[in-house]
Design a protein that fits this description.
Blueprint (H helix, E strand, L loop, with lengths): L7 H26 L30 E6 L22 E3 L12 E4 L5 E3 L4 E7 L2 E5 L4 E6 L1 E3 L6 E2 L4 E5 L5 E8 L2 E3 L17 E7 L4 E6 L19 E8 L8 E5 L10 H4 L16 E5 L6 E10 L5 E11 L4
Antiparallel strand pairs: 1-19, 2-3, 3-11, 4-10, 5-6, 5-9, 6-7, 7-11, 8-10, 11-12, 13-14, 14-17, 15-16, 15-18, 18-19
Length: about 325
């Protein structure tokens, strides 16, 4: 009769248990990050912006990083990506409310020309043009896919993950938009598109004055990094807040310059938020995103301006700059 060393089975069981625990821990870490564990973190990049007037006293002041906070909150999602693999995050080179001639009304998912595009939800197809497919889902939800060649018919019913189009020649991305009722909502919000994670906090490039008032240059870094000629081009932060700390030390309350995290803003607010020195991205040419904080007259005292920028994932960075010739009205 065959017998084994009395300690052999327990050791083998312990070895198997250790491997199993390690595998579970790795899977849990990947699930917590909502991304592939091997996906590199996109390094933040700086931009040489010219949003302030160099000739105005105290304008071209380099901001100082005060603190950075990375979100640890787990995110949920309702639907997967419109390109394969559906359950893996893809690079996004354009965000909701990015500057165009007005607010960008969706996100730009960077994929090669000809990439197959699939419906994220079951619904009824509407062919809006030779380059736009919409799918009306349950209730009042509607999903739009732009810069594509349709592979379905108008009025056709499609299932989730059914092929509906291919990315058109020369576009290098699918513009993806979501509408709930009459509101264009942010697909990258918590509870929207997923899995999605962002591990890089936004950046403040410049704080100072232009001819209109107090302005800031800020951007976010797409994570994961966008490949090819559109790499290292900015997207807009989700939220920008600011406050003033006079020499007396009595800081004003935080004020919100804009909040892009949930939905598209009305077009009427575009020039209220973006200054005229704002430039959108072009292939191989990063833009610059210049935002108004306040447009007052100037007096002659110094104060510290703190700017806090956040993204839709909850990462936050705070920057500060000491400005001379600051406005009286705070």
């Amino acid at each position: 009769m065959r017998t084994e060393h009395p300690t052999y089975l327990p050791r083998r069981a312990l070895c198997f248990t250790a491997v199993l625990i390690a595998a579970i821990a790795a899977s849990a870490a990947a699930a917590a990050a909502n991304t592939s564990p091997t996906a590199p973190v996109a390094p933040p990049f700086a931009l040489n912006t010219t949003c302030t007037d160099a000739g105005v006293l105290g304008s071209a002041t380099a901001p100082r990083l005060v603190r950075t906070t990375h979100s640890r909150h787990l995110r949920s999602w309702t639907y997967g990506w419109p390109v394969k693999p559906f359950d893996r995050q893809h690079p996004v080179r354009g965000f909701l409310n990015d500057p165009r001639s007005t607010f960008h009304f969706g996100i730009d998912i960077a994929v090669p020309d000809g990439t197959a595009v699939y419906s994220v939800t079951p619904g009824t197809v509407a062919i809006i043009s030779s380059e736009v497919v919409e799918v009306l889902g349950r209730g009042s939800s509607l999903f739009a896919y732009w810069h594509v060649v349709p592979a379905v018919r108008h009025g056709q019913h499609v299932d989730r993950h059914q092929l509906i189009a291919h990315v058109g020649r020369g576009w290098g991305h699918v513009h993806f938009a979501e509408r709930q009722g009459t509101t264009l909502v942010n697909p990258l919000r918590n509870g929207g598109l997923g899995p999605y994670t962002d591990r890089t906090a936004p950046t403040v490039d410049e704080i100072g004055f232009d001819s209109q008032g107090l302005v800031v240059a800020a951007h976010d870094t797409p994570d994961p990094r966008v490949p090819g000629a559109w790499a290292d081009e900015p997207v807009t932060p989700g939220l920008l807040e600011w406050r003033v700390i006079p020499a007396s030390g009595n800081a004003t309350t935080w004020r919100t310059a804009f909040d892009f995290r949930s939905s598209q803003l009305p077009d009427s607010r575009y020039r209220e938020i973006y200054t005229r020195r704002t430039r959108g991205n072009h292939k191989g040419e990063p833009g610059q995103y210049c935002f108004y904080l306040q447009r007052p007259a100037r007096t002659g005292f110094s104060a510290t301006v703190e700017v806090k920028v956040s993204d839709s994932a909850g990462n936050t960075a705070t920057y500060a700059a000491v400005l001379a010739d600051f406005p009286t009205r705070l």
